[in-house]
Design a protein that fits this description.
The protein is built from five helices and 15 strands. The chain has 267 residues and is an alpha+beta fold. The chain has two domains: 97 residues, Rossmann fold; 140 residues, Tumour Suppressor Smad4 (Sandwich), CATH 2.60.200. The strands form two sheets. Strands 5, 6, 7, 8, 9, 10, 11, 12, 13, 14 and 15 form an eleven-stranded antiparallel beta sheet that branches.
């Protein structure tokens, strides 16, 4: 680790660029160095923007080992604890080491095609859905047990941290961020004489494996969506999802940030 070296990553809108310039000036005045690119040995990464900027920062830099904290210049900012007008207050807390580091496990998806296996990691959610907004049919197995033959727009598996994101918009439950669990949430499930699909979320322990297996008709007509990024695979056979041993570290300055954030953003 390179002491006093900090990564600053951001989106490119006007407000973010203004805040970034101000932050870099403040960091330099306090004796910190700011990396020109992204340095994997920096002691801290600061993400400026909204939740999309936070997710982009961890994905683009392959889930870095150093802690990350966010300054919110976006709309929701559920990951971003720091308000731009309170940067000095939080920099004081950082220098005095008055913070906690929360380690958050990622979702891991093993994607099996006819000839290859791919590994994907996600902070919030992994979705298997039909291409071109069409329905998809799949078998859903929990810990090796067949749960349902699903038909609908898609199936989502979310982490506790991601339970307040797309999952919440679909009517899923909010799960406390450091619980080890997976949440399976259907997207527009079909229920008729032909199809009987669960219409509500299902929460299972984090060490259980969820298997999504598209029927043969959909092996070339489906998408996997990882934290909002679409990925296409040909001859898709199945997707196995579980909690990963890989983690990201988030700095939390205020012990009750989660509850204040939950109330502020959603109530």
């Amino acid at each position: 680790m390179k002491k006093n070296l900090i990564n600053v990553v951001s989106n490119t809108n006007f407000e973010t660029r203004r805040v970034k310039a101000e932050l870099i000036e403040k960091l330099h005045s306090r004796g910190f160095n700011v990396s020109k690119g992204f340095d994997n040995d920096a002691e801290l990464t600061i993400s400026i923007g909204g939740d999309g900027a936070f997710l982009k920062a961890v994905h683009n830099n392959r889930f870095p080992k150093m802690p990350i904290v966010g300054i919110n210049t976006g709309t929701l900012g559920f990951f971003q604890e720091i308000d731009p007008d309170k940067m000095d207050e939080y920099l004081d807390l950082y220098e005095k080491k008055e913070y906690e580091v929360e380690e958050t496990p990622l979702l891991k998806a093993e994607v099996f095609t006819k000839n290859k296996k791919f590994i994907l990691y996600s902070v919030n959610e992994i979705v298997l859905k039909g291409r071109n907004s069409k329905i998809i049919q799949m078998d859903v197995l929990i810990d090796g047990n067949h749960l349902q033959s699903f038909a609908g727009d898609g199936m989502m598996v979310s982490s506790p941290l991601g339970s307040t994101a797309y999952n919440f918009s679909l009517g899923g439950a909010i799960i406390y961020s450091n619980l080890s669990s997976l949440q399976l949430t259907p997207i527009a499930p079909l229920n008729s004489k032909a199809y009987r699909s669960l219409s509500s979320s299902l929460v299972v322990p984090g060490d259980i494996k969820i298997l999504l297996k598209p029927t043969s008709r959909y092996k070339n007509h489906s998408l996997i969506v990882v934290d909002g990024t679409e990925k296409e695979y040909w001859d898709l056979l199945k997707v196995e999802i579980t909690m990963s041993h890989k983690r990201i570290k988030r700095i939390l300055f205020k012990k009750d940030f989660y509850w204040h954030n939950l109330k502020d953003k959603f109530l």
